[in-house]
UniProtKB/TrEMBL annotation:
Molecular function terms from GO: mannose-6-phosphate isomerase activity; zinc ion binding
Lineage, uppermost ranks: Bacteria, Pseudomonadati, Bacteroidota, Flavobacteriia, Flavobacteriales
Cofactor: Zn(2+)
Cofactor note (record): Binds 1 zinc ion per subunit.
Protein name stated in the entry: Phosphohexomutase
Amino acid sequence: MSQNLYPLQFEPILKERIWGGEKLKTILNKPIVSKITGESWELSTVEGDVSVVANGVLKGKSLMELIDETPDAVLGTKVYERFGKQFPLLFKYLDAREDLSIQVHPNDKLAKERHNSFGKTEMWYVTQADADARIIVGFKEDSNKEEYLKHLQDNTLVSILDTVKAKPGDVFFLETGTVHAIGAGLVIAEIQQTSDITYRLYDFDRVDAQGNKRELHVDLALDAINYNKVDTQKKYESKVNTSNTVVDCPYFTTNFLPLENKLEVSKTGETFTVYMCIEGDFEIEYDGFKNSYKKGDTVLVPAAIKAFNLTGNASILEIYIS
C-alpha cells in the first residue's frame, strides 16, 4: 500500500454548454465564471480531461499518475484485475438551464467497434428541480426503426417519447440504447461508465451564437437505440446510517446514505469508493487524516483505505464497483 494515499478531492473540470446556466455555482459551490456552464466533471480519466488532485501532499498529481504508480491501492484488487489501469467510471454534475438534446449512447460492443471506447450506461440523481421540470426517457410504447425515422423526419419525435416529471431525490437508470434528454430546470448528479460517446438525435433546431446547428448522428444511432419501452425510475429506501441500494449493475453500485452523527465504515480493498455530497456536510476521519466536505463535493477513497469514519449530517451518494 502506498503510504501517501488518503481520501482525494479533485479540481472540477468545468464545461460550457449551449444549454448550461449558473446553478453549479449557486447550488453546488463550483467556481464557474461563465453563465452557460453546463457540466462539472468531478472525477474523470477521459483523454484530455483527466482529473487533478486538489488537496493534500498529492495536490497537482493526475488521477492517471496515481493509478499508474499504485493501481491496486487506488482502484482495488478486483477493479484492477478487471479493468487494468483504467478508471472505469466518470462522475459529473449537470445544470440544464435549457433542454439537452435528445440522445442515445451505444453499448460496449458498438462503442468498442466504432470508437475503441466503453459504452455508456449511466444513472441520474436529481439534486434540484424547478417546478414542472421533466426528463425524456425511452419510448411511450414499443416502437421500431421505421416509426422512429418517420417521426424524426416529421419533427414529431417528442410525441412518441416518454416524458416524466422529476423532483429532487428521483433516480433514473439509463442502460445503453435508451433514448433520453435532461429537461430544463434540473441539476443532476450523473454516474456513468468512462465514455464520452454520445449520439445526438434531435436538438430542437437550436443554433449557437454563430447561427450554427449542432451535429446530429442519426445514422450512427439507428443500431444503438433500444426501441422497446423501458422502466428507468428507481425506488430506494432511506434508512439512516445505512447504504441503501439504489442501482446495482455490472458497471457500478450506487447507494443512498443518509448520515446522522457518526458511521464506522469497513471496506475490503477490492474497489475504490466515491462519495458525492448531495445535501449537508460531513467529515472523513482516517488514520490521522480528517477533512470536511460540503454539498457539491466529491471525494475518492482509495481502495487501500479499508477502515474510516464518516461524521456529520448529510445525504450522500456512495459509489463503488461490485
